[in-house]
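Aggregate trends can hide what the representation actually does to any particular protein. For completeness, the protein is quoted in full, as a sequence line and a line of C-alpha cells.
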Amino acid sequence: MNALTTRHTPFGFDRVFAKDGTVLRDGERVKRMLTLNEAQAQADAAAAQALKSETAESARAATEALKTLSGRIQAILVRMDTESEAMRADAARLAVAAARQIAGAALSAHGEEAVLECARSIMDDLRAEPRIAVRVTPEMADIIAERLYAEAEHRGFEGAVVVRADEEVATGDCVLEWRSGSVERTASDIETRIAELVERWLAAPPETRADAPPVEDEPSEELKHG
C-alpha cells in the first residue's frame, strides 16, 4: 500500500501591518504608505513652495507695476514743468505789456516830470558847461522851458539853458546836448532794456532765477560823447 504524501507550502508571514492597520508589506511587494505626520509634512512643504512661488510672482508683478507708474509720474512731472515754464513766460511778457500800457498813460499825463528829472540828474555834473540844449516834443516845449529855467537858476547853473521843440521826439522823451556829449532818454529804449532783462531771466535755468527779473528803478541813460 502506497502512502500518499501531501506537500504543504509553508505560510509565509510576509504581510506586515502598522499599528493603525495600514499594510506596510504584502509579500514580496513593498507598499510604501505615508503616515499622517509624513503626509502633513509633505503638504506643508508643497504649500510653502507654492507660497514662495506666488510671492515671487507677486513681487515681479509689483516691480513691473512700479516701473510703469514711475514712468508715468515722470512724464506727468515733465509735462507740468514744461507747462509751468510756459505759464511763467506768458505771465512775464503779459506783465511787460501791461507795464508798457501803464507807462504810456503815465508819460502822456506826466511826461514833463520825466524830462525834468532827466535834466536834473545831469545839471550838477555839467555846472561849468556854457550851454545845455534840451530837445523835447513841441507839446511840452513851453512848460519844460519855464520849469527848467527856474530849476537851473535854483541850482546855480552858470551856463545857458536852451529848450527846443522837436517833432521827432516822443512825449516823455528828451535829448540833452552840451559841448562834449549828449544824453538821450527814450521810453522805447527803456522798454527794450526791460524786455531784454525779462528774456534773459526766462532763458536762465529755473534753479538760478530770482523771483523776478532784476529791473533797475532808474535805467541808466545812454551816453553819446562826441
Notes: Residues 69-225 form one domain. The longest helix spans residues 36-123. Confidence is low (pLDDT under 50) at residues 215-226.
